[in-house]
Amino acid sequence: MKRIPNLLTIIRFLLVPLFIMVFFSSSEKNLLFSAYIFMFAGITDVLDGYIARRFNLITKWGQAMDPLADKSMQITVLVCLTIRNILPLWAIIIVGMKEVIMIIGGIFLYTKKEKIVIPANRYGKLATVMFYMAMLAVIFGLKYGRLLVILTIIMTIFAFIQYLVMALKAMKELEMKSHLDKSY
To answer: How many angstroms separate the first and last alpha carbons of the chain?
Structure first.
C-alpha cells in the first residue's frame, strides 16, 4: 500500500510518451484516445495525492516527482496541441516558461542538502484542474475552450507567483538557519 502513490506517479511519467504516440498516430480517433490518456493521467494525479495524504504515505520523492510528472504531461499536451495548431503559440510560451522555471526551481531546491520541497497549494491545484478542463475543451472543440485557456493562463501565473513567494521564504529561512548554526 505504501508504494501506491509513487507507483501512480511513475505511471504518469509513462503516459507522456504514450500520449505523444497516440496524439500523432494516423488513427481517426487519435484526439479522442489521447484525451482519454490525458484524463487518465489527471485521475492518477488525484488518486496519488489522495492516497498519500489519507494514509500518511507522503515522501520527499513523491513530493518532488509528482509535480514533475504533472508538469511533463502538461508541457507535452501544450506542445502537441501547438504543433497541430489547436492552441496558439503564445499559450505554450507563457505556460511553458512557467512550468520550466518551476521544474528547474524544484530540482534546484530538492538538490540542496536539506532537500527543500515546496508542496502543492490550492492555487496550483486549481490551476491544474483548470488546465485539464481547458485542454479537454480545446481538444473536443468546445466553443468556450479558448476562454478557458485564457482563464487558465491567468490562474497559472497567479499560482506561479504564490510558489515563488513560498520558495523565496523557504530559501530565506534556510539562510537564516545556516547563519544561526554557524554562530554557535
So the answer is: 43
pLDDT given at position 1: 67
Cα separation, 92 vs 103, whole angstroms: 15
- Cα 68 off chain centre by: 6
Proportion of the chain above pLDDT 90, given as a percent: 55
**117-172 pLDDT tens trace:** 777 788 988 998 999 999 999 999 998 999 999 999 999 999 999 988 988 888 88
CB burial of residue 118 (10 Å; 0-12, 13-18, 19+): buried
CATH number at residue 81: 1.20.120.1760
What range does the domain containing 136 cover?
Answer: 4-183
Determine how many CB atoms are found less than 10 A away from the CB of residue 110.
18
